Amino acid sequence: GSYAHITRAILVGEIDIGVLPNVAPDSRLRRKLCLKQGVVALVHPEHRRASASEVSLTELAGESLIFRPKGSATQEVVDSAFNRVGLDPRPMILLDPSDAVYEAVANGLGIGFLFRHGSSRTDTVRRIPISDIDAAYEEILFCRVDVKNPAIEMFFLTANEVRFD
After folding, report:
1. Residue 142 has what DSSP assignment?
2. Which residue in 86, 100, 124, 130 is deepest, having the highest Cβ count within 10 Å?
């Protein structure tokens, strides 16, 4: 689900634990840093940009793009980056959740965006670094501070920060 959906579900008690990028400090939430990762372009293996070691937002702006809706942490990073370089591309497709974006790219429908480790799929879809998005974003494990549960405690005790490049 989207950042907004998962955060709301945690706060109202619909779900117990979440892992999302850049969860802001909040007195209602217990947080732990797990991972730092960047946003990458997802490219079909037969796309003309699939062999690139890096792409720019200017190059991507002319492609058929697949975006996530507002409320997606990934889309906020992408929108902010395009804005910083003075571009305002329109997506060909708007999909939610990120698995749908990944599947659309895998089927050759366009170029999408994902936090590098936002999917455990290892098929042929290429994850290409974006030269204009070089920041590493924090992936945060979080739950409500008032929730006491041995299974949740296990997550917090075993979660350690990992850095993938």
Report:
1. E
2. 130
What Cα–Cα distance (Å) separates residue 97 from each residue in 19, 110, 134?
15, 16, 23
Q: What's this model's pTM, rounded to 2 decimal places?
A: 0.82
The residue type of 68 is R
Using a 10 angstrom Cβ sphere, with 0-12 exposed, 13-18 middle and 19 or more buried, the burial of residue 116 is: middle
The pLDDT tens digits along the chain (165 residues) read: 778 889 999 999 999 999 988 898 999 999 999 888 899 999 999 999 999 999 999 999 999 999 999 888 899 999 999 999 999 999 999 998 889 999 999 999 999 999 988 887 878 899 999 999 978 888 899 999 999 899 999 989 988 766 555
- How many other C-beta atoms lie within 10 A of the C-beta of residue 17? 17
Structure tokens at 126: 């290429």
Number of other residues whose CB lies within 10 A of the CB of residue 119 = 17
Question: Which among 84, 92, 131 is positioned nearest to 111, based on CA atoms?
Answer: 92
Place of tokens 């879809």: 125
Largest CA distance in the chain: 51
Nearest CA among 140, 136, 144 for reference residue 21: 140
Q: Whose CA is closest to 5, among 137, 96, 79?
A: 96
Whether 107 contacts 45, CB under 8 Å: no
